[in-house]
Each structure stands twice: as C-alpha cells, then as structure tokens.
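Hi U.,

Before I forget, here's the chain from the pilot set. I'm dumping it here mostly so it's searchable later in email.
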Amino acid sequence: MTDPSPPRRYRFGAFEADVTTGEIRRQGMRIKLNAQPFQMLLMLLERPGELVTREEIARALWPDGVFVDTEHGVNSAVNRIREALGDTASSPRFVETLARRGYRFVAPVERIAANGLGTTAQPEARPEMPILPAEKSMAALPQPAIRPRSRILATEEDLPKSPHGVVQTIFILFQMMYLAFYVGALANLAEIRDLVSPLPNAAFVFRLLIVTAAILIPVRAFILCAVIFRPPAVREKLLRIWPFLLVFDVLWSLSPFLLLHHINFGLALACTALLVYSPFAQRSLVLMGAGSAKHNSAPSVG
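Structure:
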C-alpha cells in the first residue's frame, strides 16, 4: 500500500529540502541549487545510508534520447551539492563517494509529510563487535579527562557566521596584498640585492626571492579569478592548494625585512609576526564562504 502522505520536506542537520518549491534552506536562509543537483539530492535523501549508483542518477537526470556527457554531468551535480551543503569528498558529513560505484547519504534524514508528521530515517549502522573480557577491564581503568584529539586548524563548525560580502572582500584584499609584495620586490631588485648581500649564501637568497615571486604571481591571479567567478567546487580546490601556499606564505612573511632601508627592525619584526598568521586566516575565510556561492534569503523568481 502506498504512503498517502509522501514526504514534502526533508530535514538533515541544519538544512531542509522542500520538494514542492525545489529549494534548500539553512536556518531559514535559501541556498542556491540548480534543478538537476537538487533532483540528485532528493534521490540520496529518499534512500539514506544506501548506495545510489551513478547509472541510476544518470538515468533520472538525463532520460533516453538526451545526448550529454553523463560522467561529467554527475560529477558536476555532486560538486554543486557539496558546495551548497559545505561538504567535502575527503571528510563527508552528508554525501559520501563510493569509488566507481556511486554515492551514499550518510547523515540522518527526517521526512516531513504534508500533514506535518515527520519520521526519521537513520543510515544503516554497522554491527557492533562483542567486547572481550580484557577490553572490559581496560574500560574500567580511569581515562584521561580530555578524550577528543586536539585540533590546531579550525573547522567550519569552529568559525563564526559572517556576511558573505565581508568574507569575500577580506580574502580578496589578502590576495592583493601578496601581489603587491611580489611586484614590489621584482621592481626593486637592485635595492634588495644590496640589502641581502651581507647574508651567507646571498646569491641563493636573491635567486629564491625572484623565482618564488615569479611563480606566485600567476598563482595569486588564479586564486583571485576563482574567488571572483566561483567555479564549481572552488572551496575544495582552494583547500587543496593551501598546504602549498602555506610554505611560501610563511617564507614571504619575512618580506618586511626587505624594507629595512625605510623602516626600523622592530616594525619589520611586528609585521612579520602578523604575516605568519595570514595563511591560517585565509584558510578560515575559505571555510567561512570565500569563493562559494552567496547565500540568498530572497525567494526565487520563475
């Protein structure tokens, strides 16, 4: 017998998907998601904890007779879902990838029918292993007060909610600052050569400065374009290159000492200390939404 009240909405975490309007909301704020990624999300929400194959998704999104690159289409759809939900493929909270097979929704899902009644579907739990006597005796021993593994890097949950425009502007200013460092250094090579000449391996230091500045100018240009135009999965791309940038940003945190002809040593040291924090601030801004699609609370038109 069919359910007389099919789900009208799905609630998972801080999100809610409305089947009738085709919208996703987070705490009342509408999140932009196109029709095909939303349809794929509904397929996952209908079967939490179950594998939804790539073939099933392709058949649902592109009926027979429609000629498209379904492989790229499915990848693009899941990337847009993850971007909308703030999810990642490496540590999924909602959509898990099963390599070469498909996807699985791993969070609990509450189905809310048109009559307002709701039921919660939990992903299938793994069977628990029996506890051996030796393990019971170990469990009885006093445990350390702090059990969770301590984290150094912030997660999305650790960061405050800030206006998208503010986050985006600050992140762009960081990129412009570094571009100014690189261009300024290359424009004053003669002065910098005189400054580093007393150092051991002065020639190596001078060449390293030139090479890294020349490499990082196009890298910063790429980041600026990615943040301004917001391609799919831009957050994952920025987080992936962050360890590479961390090394160079820490190295270029010494750039205030290239201005010792114009500022004193104490001011250069203070600026360097601030710049050491800069790559971590940029990572936090990416997690807070820099480069991601702007959340829009206005109702959709059409």
